[in-house]
């Protein structure tokens, strides 16, 4: 599903964020990306949806080489990937329903199919009853659930989550993790960058640790491995 072959990302200021990373993530895996601040985790994640472009090496997601992908084709590529951010990124003037439906409208899906699928994913995240509300009327945890619903409404094969529980209290974080586990159980690949050691140590999955722009550890059923 995701392949990186000797990937280097060097920023204009000379900082080398990833230094020769090679990794394979298979269809259906659940992978945590961990590491100290400044280690290169965010760049590693951003390379997967071409928010950042590799300086050298290949980044292949769902059969598409993102390193050589033309700028004009990036939006279409991103529609095949679910992306969840720490700060939700919901459209404030659209209702819950409209926020999720928007992801299908941009690919010009049929209205009947949009309604059916949007209500289906809102049911999955437990917020079908709040479809007519605005994001400002929801709690942080509810907003993140809507962001997750939006990320999966087009049935992507992979969901990339960058600190999805970073702004949430512990109880809400576990609710969000339960949703991710359900999505993964349905066959979707999950790649999640996180600082939450309790979640990583409790829900054991594959752990990729990034240090100094390189993979320091890659183990199945691993723990968080850092203090604090």
From TrEMBL:
Which biological process, per GO, is one annotated for this protein? cell division
Q: Where in the cell is it found?
A: Cell membrane
Q: Which UniProt keywords apply?
A: ATP-binding, Cell cycle, Cell division, Cell membrane, Membrane, Nucleotide-binding, Transport
Superkingdom of the source? Bacteria
Q: Does the keyword Heme apply?
A: no
SUPFAM superfamilies found in the cross-reference section: P-loop containing nucleoside triphosphate hydrolases
Q: What does this protein do?
A: Part of the ABC transporter FtsEX involved in cellular division.
| Protein name, UniProt field | Cell division ATP-binding protein FtsE
Record the organism.
Metasolibacillus meyeri
């Amino acid at each position: 599903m995701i392949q990186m072959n000797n990937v280097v990302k060097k920023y204009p200021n000379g900082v080398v964020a990833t230094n020769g990373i090679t990794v394979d993530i298979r269809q259906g895996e659940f992978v945590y990306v961990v590491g100290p601040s400044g280690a290169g985790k965010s760049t590693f994640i951003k390379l997967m949806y071409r928010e950042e472009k590799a300086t050298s090496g290949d980044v292949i997601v769902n059969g598409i080489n993102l390193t050589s992908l033309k700028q004009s084709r990036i939006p279409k590529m991103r529609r095949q990937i679910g992306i969840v951010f720490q700060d939700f990124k919901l459209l404030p003037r659209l209702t819950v329903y409209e926020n999720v439906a928007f992801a299908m409208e941009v690919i010009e899906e049929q209205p009947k199919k949009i309604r059916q699928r949007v209500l289906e994913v809102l049911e999955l995240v437990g917020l079908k009853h709040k479809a007519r509300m605005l994001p400002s009327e929801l709690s942080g945890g509810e907003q993140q659930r809507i962001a997750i619903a939006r990320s999966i409404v087009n049935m992507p094969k992979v969901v990339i989550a960058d600190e999805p529980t970073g702004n949430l209290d512990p109880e809400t974080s576990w609710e969000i993790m339960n949703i991710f586990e359900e999505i993964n159980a349905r066959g979707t690949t999950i790649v999640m960058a996180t600082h939450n050691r309790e979640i990583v140590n409790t829900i054991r999955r594959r752990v990729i640790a990034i240090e100094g722009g390189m993979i320091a550890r890659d183990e199945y059923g691993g723990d968080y491995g850092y203090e604090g």
